[in-house]
Amino acid sequence: MKSFINKLFSFVDLILASPQLLLFYLSSEKEVILADVRRWVEIFEWDKGSDIQNLLFLTIKNQEFRNLYYFRIAKGNLPARLLLKVIKFFYKECQYLLLDLSSNIGPGLFIQHGLSTIIMADMGQNCWVNQQVSIGYKDKTGRPKIGDNARITAGAKVLGNITIGNNVTVGANAVVIKNVPDNCVVVGIPAYIVKKNGLKVKEELV
Hints:
- It is built from six helices and 16 strands.
- By secondary structure, the protein is of the alpha/beta class.
- The protein folds into two domains: 1-93, no CATH class; 96-206, UDP N-Acetylglucosamine Acyltransferase, domain 1 (3 Solenoid).
- β15 and β16 form a beta hairpin.
- This is Serine acetyltransferase.
- Belongs to the transferase hexapeptide repeat family.
């Protein structure tokens, strides 16, 4: 009986989310959207069938994903962008998460607890961002460029015209205003390197 009720609720969720499919099928951004879906499903360790089913579950159950989905749609073709204005009226955006449309964000971005998070940057693929993170401009000189597989953890600030390399982890509440090389972990205010290529170090950023 419990299994039947769970399946019934899941079916109702799919019906409620079904208008989101119109956005998907109209959009020119299908490939990157599906890459996002697969990454989120992998992280959540779901086993819920097709990519389309997972897309619907994510859009109705996870506001952070919904914002990312809308970001992808808004970067695409005109018909989907026009429909997005209607869809947003019924399926609201998460107001405490900002993905700036000037940003270029690679596939597979995962946003965990996007409370008070701002992303204004160019990012590679398969990045991970936590809550209360600010990534963006420090002044008029430019915004961050972040490589693949970067992880920006809770409360961190990444500011200015800097480059964050591939496979970098920015520790909680760190403030990064200088370039970070590949394969590093940085912490502190201002941030410094505590691990580089798997080895413990203590190096200032330059």
